[in-house]
Each structure stands twice: as structure tokens, then as C-alpha cells.
Amino acid sequence: MCPCARGRAGATRHCTTGDQPMTRALIVIDVQNDFCPGGALAVPDGDRIVAGINGLMDDFDAVVLTQDWHPVGHSSFASSHKGKGPYEMIDMSYGPQVLWPDHCVQGTGGAAFHADLNVDRADMIVRKGYRPAIDSYSAFFENDQKTPTGLEGYLRTRGITDLTMVGLATDFCVNFSAVDAAKLGFQVDVRMDLCRAIDLDGSLAAATSGMAAAGVRLA
């Protein structure tokens, strides 16, 4: 049986041969052009995390990318609601919903991953938000908190127990993904240095306290 390798920053990368199970996955949340400077829903300095994320990938047994993938006229777009503007709140059947600028529309350049992201290292790409009537922040569930994306099953069948999350944006898709993962029983770390936030009306502080309360480790 081969010994485990010591990865960057002292992290142990577990062997995946013989009787040694896979345990650790890097979940890269929505590092897409529309969330980077110049995009339709740009997160400040969203592109500054790409090199660091690429540098982490070899430290993990699996790498999963998530991708916002909205149809034209998605219900979360402000343009789909007469008289409403971006960042206003409305009540949907599943609860409160922020209305966003049109972003990450299927097949557009804005929905594509950042050109420098090492997409080839990914074992799986999870597309979310493609149902017209419901938004999806979390990598695990649509915003109704009932409809699964399938990511949990994928991780379970691969023997993954520990997740490290990075990406965009800290206070929305990273936050929802991390809290859902913790509720599902995964050990979750969020690398705050490799995330960036929108910080909409105090959303970053609320997300940080919520993740900590859910048992997410903020590194």
C-alpha cells in the first residue's frame, strides 16, 4: 500500500489505490465570467482567487465545479418582473428571493468558467439554476431546500466525507452550499481567502455567522 502524499500547505492527500478510500473533495463554486470583473453580476476581485484555487486542486482526491446555468427569462432576474429592479426582494413560492441582473444565461460567454480556471482537473461539473421557476444558490439543493442537484449522491458513492469550498460569492452560493453540506453530515471548510463576497446589505456578516453556527470551519 502506497503512503499518502503530503500536499501543498501541509495538507495530506489521501491515496486512492488499494484499500485506502477517497475522503476529500474541493468544491469550486461558480467561478464564471459573469461573477468576475466586467461581468453582469461582478463580485469585486472575483478573478483574484483563480490562481489560488488552481494551486489547491492537486491536494484533493476529487474536484467538483459548480456552474450557474440560467435559461433566458429566469424567474430570479429582475427583468422578468415588471416594475422591479436588480437587488430588490420579492416573495416566491419557496420564500424570499433577491432579484438579480440577468446573468449566467445558458450558452453565453458570461456563463462560461473564467478562462484561467483549470477546468480540466474537474471530476464533475454541477449545473444549477436551470429550472425557470426557482433559483439555486446551493450546490446541493434548489432554493426550495427540497429539490436535490445530485451532488450529495455523487460524493457519497465516491466515499467523500470532507469538503473544502472556495469560489463566488461567499455570502450567497458558497454560504448556502457550505451550510447545506454541514447539515448533510459532511465536514466542511471554507477557505475565506479563496472566496469573494457581494456583501448586499450586510449579507457577508450574516453568512459568516450562519456558517459558523452550522459547524462550518472558516479558514
Automatic annotation (TrEMBL):
Its EC number is 3.5.1.19. GO terms for biological process: pyridine nucleotide biosynthetic process. The keyword Oxidoreductase does not apply. Pathway: Cofactor biosynthesis; nicotinate biosynthesis; nicotinate from nicotinamide: step 1/1. The keyword Metal-binding applies. Keywords: Hydrolase, Metal-binding, Pyridine nucleotide biosynthesis. It is an enzyme of class 3 (hydrolase). Residues 25-216 form the Isochorismatase-like domain. It comes from the Bacteria. One of its GO terms (molecular function) is metal ion binding. Belongs to the isochorismatase family. NCBIfam families: PRK11609.1. This is Nicotinamidase. It comes from Tateyamaria omphalii. The lineage of its organism: Bacteria, Pseudomonadati, Pseudomonadota, Alphaproteobacteria, Rhodobacterales.
